[in-house]
Amino acid sequence: MVARGTRRGVVGRAAGGMRPASRMATRTPRRPRALPTFREYLTSSENSPNTGGLSSVLQTLSEACVEIQREVDLAPIRAAAGKGSNATSSSSSSRNASGDEQKELDLVANEILISRLRECPSVAIGASEENDEIIQMSEGTAGAEGKSYAVVFDPLDGSRNVECNIPVGSIFGVYEHDEALGVLRPGRDLVAAGYVLYSSSCLLVLTRGDGVDGFTLDREAGEFVLTHPDLRVRERGQIYSVNDARYWDWPQGLRDFIDAIRRGEGTGGGGQYSARYVCSLVADVHRTLLYGGLAMNPRSHLRLLYEGFPMAFVMEQAGGKGVNGKTNLLDMTPSGLHQKTPVFVGSSGDIAELLSYGDVVQTSTKTYSV
Ligand SMILES: O=P(O)(O)OC[C@H]1O[C@](O)(COP(=O)(O)O)[C@@H](O)[C@@H]1O
């Protein structure tokens, strides 16, 4: 009924000519003033006691992601116009340290993050999916609280999806800088982590170890505002997310678990599960955070430092869990910047049931062409 009424309204206006500009302007939806901006959230004493340096790092990350959002939006136009010729094409421009194809947009997003973080005096070093080695940032000037920071990031996760407009994301984690330790340290040492989801709206999800909050980009104002305070993942969900065309490459434990929840024979008592798989980690984790269940990549494909750790930290801070199929991801210590790992994150009850099946890690090293 609503749709028909709306449609009649549009037809009526067309017949009667355009509304005056002044009336159209008053109908533009505006953000209620009461929602705090990301900057206000970071700097309010209630949210950010004595952490000025960390706040400036997080503010810098958010601003860089606003720029990346714009690049993601414009990629098809740039490609069609012949600038950034392979921004949305499937041809590879190069390969990164892990041997993955790098799209031009991966490199653009990486450049934006590095150059922005270099301007932030509190950032000492960084590690990116797209760089083989540690990136020296600024001098890492200690802030008022005497700390500087190390930032690890995947600038554009899921970039293989850009060509068909499927959501992509950026993932980040922040450590207090320690010259001796660098970034090869347990996920438990993270002081902040999160992701930005470039989708129908652009969302930033953040934890600083005291719960999880979500922010939506007000594209007109060019800043994030707090829209999802205190996100919690439910104890059990009813959605599983995995590339299950790989079923025959899985160990028996994982097959049995997925068979059980598909049949509605899981221990959660919620009935048959549904499958959802975007193949963009940020999108699959974000849906899991909101609706519960599990997001999985059972083969050693995702990077521990800047994919596994941040997602596990967010999930744990929301009341869920992240494991590598055997142990808690946050208790692992990476042996290298680009170490890969299986990743299972989601509702704690679902993760516990998954682990009760024993062998759930895919050890087949088969490579897949898509
Ligand atoms: O091919 P698979 O095993 O389904 O992996 C898909 C996963 O790989 C990713 O595309 C990440 O891969 P990259 O880090 O190489 O971009 C995730 O976004 C997605 O969840």
Automatic annotation (TrEMBL):
Record field: catalytic activity: beta-D-fructose 1,6-bisphosphate + H2O = beta-D-fructose 6-phosphate + phosphate
- Write down what this protein is called: fructose-bisphosphatase
What family does this belong to?
Belongs to the FBPase class 1 family.
Question: Where do transmembrane segments lie in this chain?
Answer: none
GO CC annotations? cytosol
**GO-annotated molecular function:** fructose 1,6-bisphosphate 1-phosphatase activity
EC class: hydrolase
